[in-house]
Amino acid sequence: MTPSFSQSSELSFSSSSQENGSSSSPTPLDSSSSSMTTLITSIEQQLSKLTIRRDDDYHDVERQQQEEEIIVELSQQQQVFSRFEGISPNVKWKAIYHEQVLEEFPARYCPLEYLDEATPVSEDNSHLVPQRSQRWRELRQNRLTASNISRALGFFNPKASKKLKLSFSQNAHEQTTREMYKSLLSREELKTVFKMSEEEIEKLKNPIVNEESYDEIVKRVFTEWGSLHELNCVSTLLESDLFDQDVTFCEAGFYVITEKKLSKVFTKQELEEYQLSFEKIPPLGASPDGLLKKLNRTNGTKIHQVLENGKSDHPYSTEEEEDEFFSCVEIKCPTCFVPKYVKKGALIPSRPTFSYICKKPHDTIPVYYLTQMYTQMIATNTRQCYFCSWTATKGCHVFKVEFDRKYALEMLYWLSKYYQVVKYNGVDIADDYFITSERYLKFLEWSLKIVNNIPVEKEIPKSRVYDGQDSERKNLFN
């Protein structure tokens, strides 16, 4: 059966929708959930006024009939709005699945050829380990991964976040900078250097998370929406004219930054200039959302074939072929579901109520994603990274980040400074540990300057979305 695709578009409000078994989706709200509340309040006020007038001695039949029609219409609109809120947002709404991208772009989309379960995982073949698998999670343990580098650099500490114009409360429930570096140490080091008990070490290494807490539910909705719609973004990119037709998008596994890889990216002289060596930096790794390479063609034949099991004979498996990649791809899919605002001081509900909003793509790259992309470029030995911000109804913005060697070295310098303070000096670092350093402040300013000077490379006005009859992807809320 041929999958159904569409490009997102704005629909007009209509009272005829899912009650009648229609597959049409309700109209996205443009701005925030506050607009919904304001309009519903306005509707209620109008209904109240009209009801009062009908109770008066008012006998104009024609006018009364008009008022009754308005009441019915406003009531229907209020029912429509009720479908924009709920406690169970459908994170699969309009998601495009793996098989559909393979069918549409068999020569330009290359899925990962999974490493056989019987094959031991090493630093040399970790890039063939699929993301979000158990072995992928194990590879990430005791490493700083690309997505956490900005936190490891102290970007979310109080004074640093102010300097970077970030909200200090952003991701406040995540692991702190202090905890991140301590978790890299062995149990013996934590005992001898920090005098931690077994109970404290276990809590640090394997923190207990309440999956049903308010923050965890919100976090889960955000992350699941993002991961489930990455292929929507891939499909949107491949359909656009951003890349030449001989460029293929390849899935990626986990890339470990080894001493050999570090020496391929930087010269010995460069590392010495920044007082760096492989031993001085913390264990690092990265999982790009994708990698781009040019397709080698012989008489117009694609270099990989889609097999019966849905996989392909992958165009890369050796280290030499890895070097053929020319760019990383980092995909962000901002969720269209946001928790309703809870006033300061008010009792936080046990479960959040989510509102649907018409989310727009990023106009600039958030500064905390910059170091993530730089870590990916170092790990894959590429010289650029496409940052793609995809939304379900407002299109996609694509930015091209070029590799700056000096900035990359400065980033590694500060990672090594943090790591050495914890590992070798046994210091339980406090927030904003390096904020008095002029060099650190210049690094923060440099980071902000880079992202502010990267323009949108490509604006794709229409997003690719699934528009078929699959019930699990049709409705906004479950």
From TrEMBL:
Coiled coil: none annotated. One of its GO terms (biological process) is DNA repair. Residues 1-38 are annotated as: Disordered. It comes from the Eukaryota. SUPFAM superfamilies: Restriction endonuclease-like. This is Uncharacterized protein.
